[in-house]
Design a protein that fits this description.
Structural class of chain A: alpha+beta
Order of helices and strands of chain B: HHHHHHHHEHHHHHHHHHHHHHH
Number of helices of chain A: 27
Radius of gyration of chain A: 36 Å
Number of strands of chain A: 36
Number of strands of chain B: 1
Strand content of chain B: under 5%
CATH architecture of one domain in chain B: Alpha Horseshoe
Helix content of chain B: over 70%
CATH topology of one domain in chain B: Serine Threonine Protein Phosphatase 5, Tetratricopeptide repeat
Distance between the termini of chain B: 88 Å
Oligomer: heterodimer
Largest sheet of chain B: none
Chain lengths: 934, 412
């Protein structure tokens, strides 16, 4: 193999990196790097120079507006992997705590709680069975003989519920009963000792969190494209994982037409673990496909003939999770495997495993990551092995003796501080001795004949480290194409380079950003909000693999790029080669494209970095527009010229453009989108219920008692209906419900406990109206201390009824004044004025902006309805006498036995069905003040 | 409040940068330029302490846009770069270098030279290590351009002398260029690095003026100093120099031996092998076999007819003479478990036969000797060859059949 006669000049230092680290936006632009004499004009008078970066490259243009789905979603909904909000603690208190530091706080207690709820058998199994008889879960009081050996758990459960409801409240006081119980039981109640369990859980949480920050198990990608053996047929095979747990391996034949389409049913294999990586190589006309899951690696063989069935060859089991599996491009049935314990194996299907190295330490300096990687080199017996600090090459025949350093994170390659190897890849199909190494900042091309000195280096500026790479070798004289893909941000970058044998390596053309999966969201038909949310969640799932193929028929060259997401979707886009090189791009693109169309900005909602980072990251999604205005302001202030202003306006206009689409998808693509959406909605019939907070389980929301429906309509309702029917029959008009009020008020009956109906219906209606939280708050605050206080108050008042009269009178007079005001503004009198729960404290009043807040769920108590000035007026009682009557009635109302359930629940007996009352409440924006103490 | 204002300002700056980045990645230079004009604002209140400041970003993006923008001209680019030089003191030299590179790539050698001279005279306080490196590079590139001027004068002079008259002024000028070039080039190649063009030019200068010792020293230093990277070109240059100097075979072989040790797959290994095969010493012929076997280990040599014919010739020689079969045996030992699959599979036999008959001939010979006449590769190729009635393939078949016992001795 030829070696370039002269290389680009570069310094060579040794030791740790000197340059200060840190992500540098735009660091990859505007630099030639170095120049070298070369090129065609050697015999000319003047020497001709070529740059290391900046030479012209091939022009590839996207054929469609966005990526198009290749496979239809299969049945069984995708289970999203944990998002930051699932495992992080988020509350006001917490925000205050971490205002200074940017550290994330894991929500440990919630997760432990989940474990207890989800796995009660494992958590409390044996003692639960033992104590079964001693725990009583009913509501009624315990009888005497049982009381000595049984505790009533209902109160405890209520306490816990209350705690749950007040989660994050700074003034949260622990119920002493709970503290007492936990103090008593924590040593013996748990099946697994609590400390041990907590340790394990914490470890797992930390693991999950670090995975969210950077998940290296996906390195290499789980998508492979097996091109057709003879170039004539446009049928290749796509190897991809699928299924709910991504543990099914599919070999799907795909016909490459304008839009690739599947052909026939895929060959399917069920594996025992989540597929993390699919690697493939073609040797001697056969495709070898290596599949890595955490503890198992397998290899399949696919003969190059069409319609061949993939045959599984061998499976190995590892004790430690495997971090890498690569397939030899040189010898059939050879693979290399690395495990997280630092062991590198050469795996031959015929001879089995050969351990090449075992070293839990990293190679060049200490790094905590157990990630290891290995790949093949130009010599079939020499393997590279990598960790985060660099790459070494080992000879499999004498791995201890024969090795050399290929790449080091250090001054040798001009690295930055903190730079780490993310993905090494053998570029053998482009040039037998070339190697690609990506780090979180840069991408390097190495030549193993000149180790340690990268022949090419470029800052890729990607927002997430490139975990996937794919090479498309160019024919002699044409550039090689390298695709880099990131997982979390779904970024895809196309680079071109050339050289390596006759001439030195050069980057050709500018890097190009390709469509990501999430980018097609704007081209999909409009969805209902919650569907849109689900769709967005699915489409912004981290990428899990990358594959591509070059297609040539005659002059027409195109490139097909497949991208796999963690949800199992495979999307595809086509780039076409533009050989003509038009001088200027079509103006249409520039005129209609707006910023923000780029998925590069759209940090997916589940971005963990946003949480790990600073506080303001949360607003990241919204600031674009407003802050461009800031620039505009500055320009106005500082310069006072009109020219930049125009530009700023232009800018603003673009930002405001809601549909930032470079073009519309082709009809075929649009059809494919629709088919995909239909299949998706069929596959996921049941949308996951709680979109707001995944921690709320229905079990805790509604007890069995709550769910018990009412036996039948109450007598009042029956009366109402009867009257309604009668009036309809007569063709009459119900002007007021007043005649009803003239009937003897069914007070004693109304004050009886209303059963389970009302809390539930009230809660549901509140939830429907959107202020469920507030209802809950009211209910809980009501139920503990308030009730006691209210009872005490009432008893005191009963005793001093006489002395209180004047005070009560003054109070009611103010009430009258209020109600008169409301009468003035109301369009029509309404007896059934839905108010807020009568025992509600004043400061908990809902915001004024929401008319539906005072929902009928918490409507007026009957005595309030009786006492309201409206109702009294309706009955023809003169104003001056109303007060006396009210006083009288209030005393009388205190007479009957006190209701065990909150008074709010009685309202619905007076209330006609909620839709009507909602209407009335909507038409009555002003509320009446609730009476204190009722 | 001012703090909030700062924060907002920073955010809008970042947003603007994102827009620029997005436009650049989509090759929308016009849009990027529009955003860049907004971003220039950020220079006014530069609160950032990031290691790449706004001035550098403006330089980078601006340069990139001007390279590609359909309406930009070289004049505009020069103007922009001049402004960028004054923008950041820390990056002055870097920007100068990049400017020069761009001029060079566009064939504006004289302007580039002027810029280099200007940059060389730049002084600002104490130089950092990076600036020091950049300054050295600037000097080296100036030396390189001086070398090209020298080379031009030299050609004029040579042409003139062919015509029979000499021009002392041109000669003087040439010597002047030599001095300037030599001083600068000599400096940079002392520092560890990859300096292929600089070394080549410097050696050319020295050789022209007959300073062979200095040239040899420079090349030896470049090839064997352990602080320098293991650059195969350094050894190649030394080898070529030695060849030009008509050095004895021995020193050539020792130079190539070292190259073989560091890059067994280098293209010069063919020359090395032929050189060794011709040698009368057994040890060297042995080394020759080793070299060619090692070269063929590499995927890049898999289909190299020259290499295969070298191996075939040497193996044939050994088999015919029946001496040193143990050499083959030793080489074969470490390869017999993977060469058959790597080189001699049936698939490859078919493909080689289809694509390159002479390659398949050489390979079949080697395969027949190393693996016997039952070997798939040999069988297929010899069968096809006989079917196609090619004489040499029939000879090949006969030869392998006659020497089949060798295979047993090699593999045994």
């Amino acid at each position: 193999m030829e070696f370039p006669a002269a290389l680009f000049p570069s310094y060579f230092g040794a030791g740790p990196p000197q340059e200060e680290g840190g992500p540098a936006p735009l660091a990859g632009w505007g630099e030639h790097g170095q120049v070298l004499e070369g090129g065609p004009g050697r015999r000319q008078v003047q020497p001709a120079f070529v740059p290391r970066r900046g030479a012209t490259g091939e022009r590839w243009e996207a054929a469609d507006a966005a990526a198009v789905p290749v496979l239809l979603p299969r049945a069984g909904c995708w289970i999203p992997s944990p998002a930051p909000q699932d495992i992080l603690y988020r509350s006001g208190l917490c925000k205050k705590l971490r205002a200074g530091k940017s550290r994330a706080i894991l929500d440990f207690t919630r997760q432990l709680g989940h474990f207890f709820v989800d796995h009660p058998e494992d958590a409390f199994g044996s003692l639960g069975r033992l104590l079964h008889k001693n725990f009583y879960l009913g509501n009624s009081k315990l009888q005497r003989p049982a009381r000595s050996s049984t505790i009533r758990m209902t109160a405890l459960v209520e306490d816990i519920d209350r705690l749950e409801a007040r989660r994050g409240c700074p003034r949260q006081h622990l119920a002493s009963r709970l503290r007492w119980f936990s103090h008593l039981c924590r040593d013996w109640l748990f099946e697994v000792p609590l400390g041990l369990l907590a340790d394990c859980l914490h470890e797992e949480l930390m693991q999950q969190w670090s995975n969210l920050l950077f998940d290296d198990s996906l390195t290499g990608g789980a998508l492979a494209w097996l091109p057709p053996e003879d170039r004539g047929t446009p049928v290749g095979c796509l190897v991809h994982p699928g299924g709910q747990a991504m543990n099914h391996l599919y070999f799907q034949d795909v016909v490459l037409e304008e839009l690739p389409r599947t052909r026939g049913a895929p060959a399917q294999f069920e594996l025992s673990g989540r597929i993390q990586q699919v690697a493939a190589a073609r040797v001697d006309g056969q495709d070898f496909v290596g599949v890595r899951s955490d503890y198992h690696c397998g290899v399949w063989r696919l003969l190059g003939k069409r319609g061949a069935v993939p045959t599984p060859l061998q499976v190995i089991h590892t004790d430690v999770p495997a971090s890498c599996l690569t397939v030899s491009p040189h010898l059939p049935g050879e693979l290399s495997v690395c495990t997280q314990s630092g062991t590198v194996y050469l795996w031959s299907v015929e001879t089995g495993l050969q351990q090449l190295r075992h070293d839990p330490q990293t190679m060049f300096f200490r790094d905590h990551s157990p990630w290891r990687w290995s790949d093949f080199t130009a010599h079939p017996r020499v393997l590279s092995c990598a960790d985060r600090t660099g790459l070494q090459c080992l000879d499999a025949r004498a791995p201890k003796r024969c090795h050399f350093d290929l790449f080091k994170v250090g001054e040798e390659a001009g690295c930055q501080q903190g730079e780490r190897v993310v993905l090494p890849m053998y570029l053998g199909r482009a040039h037998p001795s070339q190697y690609l190494v990506t780090t979180q900042f840069s991408v390097y091309v190495l030549d193993e004949r000149l180790p340690l000195v990268p022949v090419l280096k470029w800052a890729h500026m990607m927002k997430a480290p490139p975990l996937f790479a794919h090479l498309m070798p160019g024919k002699p004289g044409r550039s090689h194409k390298v695709l880099l893909g990131a997982s979390r941000t779904q970024e895809l970058l196309l680079l071109q380079y050339r050289g390596g044998s006759q001439s030195a390596c050069q980057l050709a053309g500018t890097p190009q950003k390709l469509h990501s999966i999430a980018g097609c969201l704007q081209h999909l038909p409009t969805q209902l909000p919650h569907r849109h949310h689900l769709l967005q969640q699915r489409l912004t799932a981290p990428a899990a693999g990358l594959a591509a193929t070059l297609q040539e028929d005659g002059l027409h060259k195109s490139m097909l790029i497949f991208q796999l997401s963690e949800a199992g979707d495979v999307f595809c886009q086509r780039l076409t080669h533009n050989a003509a090189q038009p001088p200027a791009p079509p103006s249409r693109d520039e005129a209609t494209t707006a910023p923000g169309s780029s998925p590069l900005f759209e940090v997916p909602a589940s971005s963990p970095q946003g949480l790990a980072g600073e506080e303001e990251e949360e607003e990241e999604q919204t600031f674009y527009l407003s802050n461009l205005e800031v620039i505009i302001d500055d320009e106005e202030e500082d310069m006072g010229t009109s020219a930049p202003l125009e530009e700023a306006e232009l800018l603003q206009e673009r930002c405001a453009n809601p549909q930032p689409s470079p073009a519309v998808p082709s009809p075929a693509a649009a059809l494919q989108y629709r088919r995909w959406l239909r299949a998706l909605s069929r596959a996921c019939k049941e949308p996951p219920g709680h979109t707001w907070s995944p921690s709320l389980s229905q079990r805790r929301l509604f007890t069995r008692k709550d769910l018990e429906g009412p036996v039948g309509p109450s007598s009042l309702q029956r009366q109402m209906r009867q009257r309604l029917r009668q009036t309809m029959k007569e063709g009459g008009l119900i002007q007021h419900w007043a005649p009803l009020a003239l009937q003897p008020p069914p007070l004693p009956q109304a004050l009886e406990p209303a059963g389970g109906l009302d809390p539930l219906s009230a809660r549901l209606t509140a939830a429907w109206a959107g202020d469920w939280e507030q209802w809950w708050e009211e209910r809980t605050s009501f139920s503990v201390a308030k009730r006691q206080q209210a009872l005490r108050e009432r008893r005191r008042r009963q005793k001093r009824a006489q002395g209180r009269r004047s005070l009560s009178a003054s109070f009611t007079s103010s009430l009258t004044y209020q109600s008169e005001l409301s009468e003035l503004s109301d369009t029509g009198p309404s007896v059934l004025s839905p108010g807020r729960p009568p025992l509600l404290s004043q400061e908990a009043s809902p915001p004024a902006g929401s008319p539906l807040v005072h929902s009928p769920a918490t409507s007026a108590a009957p005595d309030e309805a009786l006492l309201s000035s409206q109702s009294l007026r309706c009955r023809g009682i003169p104003k001056e006498r109303r007060k006396t009557l009210r006083d009288y009635l209030s005393v009388w109302a205190e007479g009957p036995p006190e209701p065990p359930e909150p008074l709010g629940s009685q309202a619905s007996q007076l209330c006609i069905p909620s839709s009507q009352s909602q209407l009335s409440s909507a038409s009555q924006p002003r509320r009446k003040r609730p009476r204190m103490g009722f | 409040s001012s703090n909030e204002h700062k924060l907002n300002f920073r955010k809008s700056k970042e947003a603007c940068l994102s827009f620029i980045q997005d436009a650049l990645l989509q090759k929308e230079w016009k849009r990027a330029a529009e955003f860049l004009t907004c971003y220039i604002e950020s220079l006014e209140k530069d609160y950032s302490r990031e290691h790449i400041g706004p001035s550098e970003m403006i330089w980078r993006t601006g340069a990139e846009i001007l390279w590609h923008h359909s309406q930009s001209s070289m004049k505009e680019f020069n103007c922009f770069m001049e402004q960028m030089k004054t923008l950041g003191v820390k990056r002055y030299l870097k920007v100068c270098l990049e400017h020069v590179f761009h001029l060079l790539c566009n064939g504006q050698i004289d302007e580039a030279y002027q810029n280099l001279s200007l940059a060389e005279s730049w002084r600002f306080g104490e130089q950092t290590a990076i600036q020091d490196k950049e300054m050295k590079l600037i000097q080296a590139y100036r030396g390189l351009l001086d070398y090209y001027s020298w080379s031009k004068q030299k050609n004029i002079l040579l042409e003139n002398s062919e015509d029979g008259f000499s021009d002392s002024a041109v000669e003087q000028e040439m010597h002047g260029y030599f001095r300037k070039a030599a001083v600068n080039l000599k400096e940079i190649i002392k520092i560890p690095g990859v300096w292929d063009i600089f070394v080549k030019c410097y050696v050319d200068l020295l050789e022209f003026y007959g300073d062979h010792n200095e040239a040899r020293q420079v090349l030896n230093e470049y090839a064997y100093n352990s602080k320098f990277p293991a650059n195969p070109n350094a050894h190649v240059y030394l080898y070529q120099f030695l060849k030009r100097q008509r050095e004895p075979k021995k020193s050539l072989i020792s130079a190539l031996k070292i190259l073989h040790d560091i890059v067994p797959s280098h293209e010069l290994m063919i020359d090395f092998n032929t050189m060794l095969q011709k040698s009368k010493k057994r040890k060297k012929r042995r080394l020759g076999l080793e070299v060619i076997f090692a070269a063929l280990d590499y995927a890049g040599w898999k289909e190299n007819v020259k290499a295969w014919s070298c191996l075939a010739r040497q193996v044939k020689q050994i088999v015919i003479s029946e001496k040193h079969l143990d050499w083959i045996k030793q080489e074969w030992n470490s390869r017999k478990d993977w060469w058959p699959a790597f080189h001699f599979s049936r698939y490859l036999a078919k493909r080689n036969w289809r694509e390159n008959k002479s390659l398949s001939y050489e390979k079949a010979l080697v395969a027949g000797i190393l693996l016997g006449k039952g070997c798939k590769y040999f069988k297929y190729v010899s069968h096809q060859g006989c079917k196609a009635q090619l004489k040499r393939f029939r000879m090949l078949k006969k030869f392998v059949n006659r020497h089949n016992p060798v295979y047993l001795r090699i593999s045994g």
